[in-house]
Each structure stands twice: as C-alpha cells, then as structure tokens.
Specification:
With about 325 residues, the protein is mainly β. It folds into two domains: about 170 residues, no CATH class; about 130 residues, no CATH class. Helix content is about 5%, strand content about 45%. The protein is globular and about 60 Å long.
C-alpha cells in the first residue's frame, strides 16, 4: 500500500496527500475516493462560519477580529456578527441580511473602542451564498466587508474592487489564524481551506460510511482534493485520534473526536452497525504544525496569547469543523 492508503485501527501514520497511486476515477478496496455523491448522501448544511483574524497596524498595535456568518436554513436569513479586541472581544457590528431589509445591505458604521476609531464599510447588496445543498452561511462572491482602525485598513474580506482598495492611504498586515465551521445534517461534510498564504485552496470532504449497508462497522473517511488521506475503521472504538499529513510542504495535524455521535446522553452506544444512533456533535480539527510545537487541540485564547506582540513568529492556521448529526 502507498502512504495514502487506508490504515488499520489503532495506528497513526504520516501521509503524503500529493502523491498516490489511487485514481480518483477507479476506487479500490484499499482506497476509496471521498465524493459528496457516494452512498447518495445529501451534504450537511453549513449553519455558521467564524473566522479569527490578526491585524498588525503600522503603529505596531495588534487587533484580533472575529467575523461570524450565521445562516437560518428554514428562512434563508443570513446574519453577520463582528467582534474585535485583545482578550475580551467587543461586538462592533451586527447585521441581519434578511432579503426584505434592503437598506441594511450596504453602508458604514463608525465607533470608538479603547481609544481606537473603528469604521466598518460593507456592501452585501449583491452577495451570493450558493444554491441548493451548496448554499452556506458565508457569501462566496459579490460582497465585501472592510474594517478601518484609526483610518488604516485593518481587515478586508470579500471581493472589493482594486480601485477602492487603492483609495486607502494606509494598509495594515492581517492574516487568518483560525476558522470554525458548523454543520448539521448527515455525516457528510464538504468545505474548502487554504492552509498558508502561499498555498492553494483545497477541497475537503469528511464522511462516515456507516450508512453503507455493506459495512458492518462505521468508518470515518477524510479526503482532500478527491484523494483519501485518512480512513479510520471501527469508529465507535476509535472515536478520538489524530494523524499527520503533508500538504503544500507543511505538516498538518488532523484530529477527530466523534465520541458524542455514539455515547451522548439518550443515544444507544456501542452499536455494531450504522454510524451511531446519537445526535451529538463531533469535532474535526486541521492545524498546521509550527516548529516543534506538540500541542494538538489549541484553544483560541492560546493562539492569541502566543501571537500577541510577536511579529517575527510565523502564524499557523487551524480549521475546526463542528458536525451535528441529526
């Protein structure tokens, strides 16, 4: 078997996601391509996305900003929530993008927090969120949100025109530190992630194949760019674990905790088939490894503490996926 092939339970490997003999069109018994269409499962619905950014201004000041998008699946409403601050983030902007409230989809807001002047400029009037099962909580195009701190561009998300970007006299340095995504539905989760500024966007698919009648025990499968990088057998026994993969020249630790899929209160634990009867929440985390850092489950406040006041330290990236199985 090559490095990306399936591995037996209890083992932990280092996998190379960029080289594999498995074809994305010819799945075999030892390498099954992760595809949203396998087993006719409907991809889960993305209900919330929360991104944490670090900004370094020309003055040397640091700001941590969290941009959160919420989606109400029943009414298709979207909500934008922005917080900023060092240790105790303060809400600086909140917006309900309901289709009936056109006047709130474009504008500016100015306020002062701890001696700093914040100006939020936004345009969501043409925001596109995808369609059908691909619709998410965060817009995919046709929008922008810009945050100026003391007249310096501290954060820009979306696709603002180049002309408007050039109109800013000062532009700070900002980077994405972590991203949290929340899903609800089946045991199939599909997203995209970029693990470094110089890296590429990657398609990520996480699925539990326990619903397949041909499998007696639930199996967790993680695919990146249509190639399986992790396969965990007998998931109800191996409900927590970690494995390392190579991606864009980086070591990326992947950790999973699906305990509550099987053992949350009110569920039947230890089932020998299916993907578990519990409706609890699982957590998956992709995190780039920095140097000899051996910490795996890294809390957001620890990230802020490590990066605060240290420009020379390379900031890593972490993607957390919270998966509720209904």
């Amino acid at each position: 078997m090559d490095l990306i092939s399936c591995y037996s339970q209890y083992s932990v490997q280092v996998s190379e996601s960029s080289s594999s003999s498995c074809s994305s069109f010819t799945p075999t018994s030892s390498c099954i391509v992760a595809s949203p269409n396998n087993n006719n499962l409907t991809p889960s619905t993305q209900t919330s996305v929360s991104s944490l950014y670090k900004t370094t201004l020309s003055s040397g000041d640091h700001h941590f900003t969290t941009v959160t998008w919420h989606r109400n699946p029943t009414t298709a409403d979207h909500h934008l929530h922005i917080t900023s601050g060092h240790h105790e983030p303060t809400t600086i902007f909140r917006l309900n993008t309901h289709s009936g409230i056109f006047r709130k989809k474009k504008g500016t807001k100015t306020l002062e927090i701890n001696g700093s002047r914040f100006e939020i400029s936004y345009d969501l009037s043409s925001a596109q969120y995808g369609s059908g099962v691909g619709a998410g909580a965060e817009p995919i195009e046709g929008y922008y949100v810009a945050i100026l701190v003391n007249s310096e561009l501290g954060l820009l998300v979306g696709d603002m025109s180049d002309e408007k970007i050039k109109s800013f006299k000062r532009v700070g340095k900002y980077c994405l530190i972590s991203r949290k995504e929340y899903y609800s539905g089946n045991t199939l989760y599909s997203t995209k992630a970029k693990f470094s500024d110089a890296g590429n966007w990657h398609d990520i698919v996480i699925r539990c194949t326990g619903e397949n009648p041909g499998l007696k025990y639930p199996v967790l499968q993680v695919g990146i760019d249509k190639r399986v990088v992790i396969r965990v057998k007998r998931l109800q026994w191996n409900f927590r674990g970690n494995q390392t993969i190579f991606l864009d020249g980086l070591l990326v630790d992947l950790m999973w905790d699906v305990h509550d899929w099987f053992f949350n209160s009110g569920s039947e634990s230890g089932s020998g088939s299916g993907s578990g009867s519990g409706s609890g929440q699982a957590v998956f985390m992709f995190r780039t490894r920095s140097g000899l850092d051996s910490r795996l489950w890294l809390e957001e406040k620890m990230v802020k503490s490590d990066d605060d006041g240290n420009d020379d330290k390379k900031t890593g990236f972490a993607l957390l996926i919270y998966a509720s199985k209904s």
